[in-house]
Design a protein that fits this description.
Elements (H helix, E strand, L loop, with lengths): L1 H11 L12 H7 L8 H15 L1 H14 L6 H30 L5 H4 L9 H8 L5 H33 L17 H9 L10 H38 L13 H15 L13 H8 L1 H15 L18 H7 L7 H10 L1
Helix pairs in contact: 1-5, 4-8, 4-10, 7-8, 8-9, 10-11
Length: 351
């Protein structure tokens, strides 16, 4: 990604083989933003909001990878805050700057983007490189995109298998899913999670791709709902820590207001996930169900859980929340960060 950003900067100033200085040309013609459904500024706002809703998926599930790996990383109380801060910087550099680079180097009306093509050959970076007359590099970028897709799939397989394993540990999934090999890998959970990768072949046929998009929309909806729940749990955690006089090891200057903003925004995005289907020309029962069926399913699952476990409290009193179970094990597993090799050797001898 750093290489593509540098290349985009070079193309911006006309450093390609054609010596064509792009500048902000594509922002003026064909334009950086196009009206959608309606004309004028209203259409541009609809276009912006639809793009925002569609881009939620990577922002919803990428941060969860940090949380899931916290259960297996060394010294999570020290390393997890470091990884969180680095994630924010990477988010700005790789996501925001990449979007800016794409808008500067690739025209939005290029047929390779708008003709419904799928796969790496319709990547805007590949289109921009091909338009600049650079040989061989598009194939290299295609290979990098495929490797990146494989890496992303590997990450999500890790998340799903560990989530399934955690459900088994707490008694919400079959017990055999708790089985791990000598390296600590829950192989049954990994195997079952891998089976869902076969759903990717639904995209081979146009009718199957419709069903695949249903799954994507369901996942998107539940991802937004899960973050609303996470923010509520975090706010309850803060109250419990304050009530019991416990100081958290990591603080963010945005909290607790960041959680309130996230609750509002994710709720708004979830309710507007399929807002474009309400226009008469776009209305269809399948589009509406695809966008919003996840909400009633979540409500039914939550209410059903409350009925089954009706004796449990709806919300624990902050002073009664268990904040100590397992804490000593976490503290014992912490490894101090040595500043000098001699100190590290002393620590090893003491251990």
């Amino acid at each position: 990604m750093i290489g593509l950003l540098i290349l985009s900067f070079i193309l911006f100033w006309g450093g390609g083989p054609t010596r064509d200085r792009l500048g902000f040309r594509y922002w003026h013609n064909p334009g950086a933003a196009h009206p959608y459904i309606l004309g004028g500024n209203t259409g541009r706002f609809i276009s912006f909001w639809e793009t925002l809703v569609l881009s939620v998926f990577p922002f919803t599930f990428a941060p969860e990878l940090l949380v899931v790996t916290g259960g297996e990383m060394e010294s999570p109380r020290r390393n997890l805050p470091i990884a969180s801060r680095r994630y924010f910087y990477r988010l700005v550099i790789f996501y925001v700057l990449s979007v800016l680079a794409i808008g500067l180097t690739c025209p939005s009306n290029d047929p390779r983007l708008t003709n419904g093509g799928a796969g790496a050959h319709s990547s805007p970076f590949v289109v921009a490189i091909a338009n600049a007359g650079i040989k061989v590099l598009p194939s290299i970028v295609n290979a990098v995109i495929l490797i990146s897709a494989w890496s992303a799939g590997n990450s999500f397989l890790y998340i799903s298998s560990r989530a399934l394993y955690s459900l088994a540990v707490q008694g919400s999934a079959p017990r055999f899913l708790k089985a791990c090999n000598r390296w600590g890998v829950p192989y049954y959970a990994v195997g079952i999670s891998s089976l869902f990768a076969a759903l990717g072949y639904l995209n081979v046929a146009s009718s199957g791709s419709t069903v695949f998009n249903w799954f994507v929309n369901l996942t998107n909806t539940w991802g937004m709902i899960s973050w609303v729940c996470c923010c509520i749990i975090y706010l309850r955690f803060r109250k419990a820590a304050a009530a019991q006089g416990i100081e958290s090891g990591y603080h963010s200057f945005l909290q607790p207001w960041g959680s309130y903003i996230a609750i509002f925004m994710f709720t708004l995005l979830c309710l507007t996930n399929g807002f474009t289907c309400f226009w008469p020309q776009n209305w269809s029962a399948s589009s509406f169900l695809t966008a919003y069926i996840g909400i009633p399913i979540f409500v039914v699952m939550y209410v059903g859980h409350r009925i089954v476990f009706w004796k449990d409290k709806w919300a624990w009193d902050p002073a009664e929340v268990d904040m100590t179970t397992g804490l000593q094990e976490v503290l014992d597993a912490e490894r101090p960060l040595p500043k000098r090799k001699g100190l590290a050797r002393v620590c090893m001898i003491i251990e």
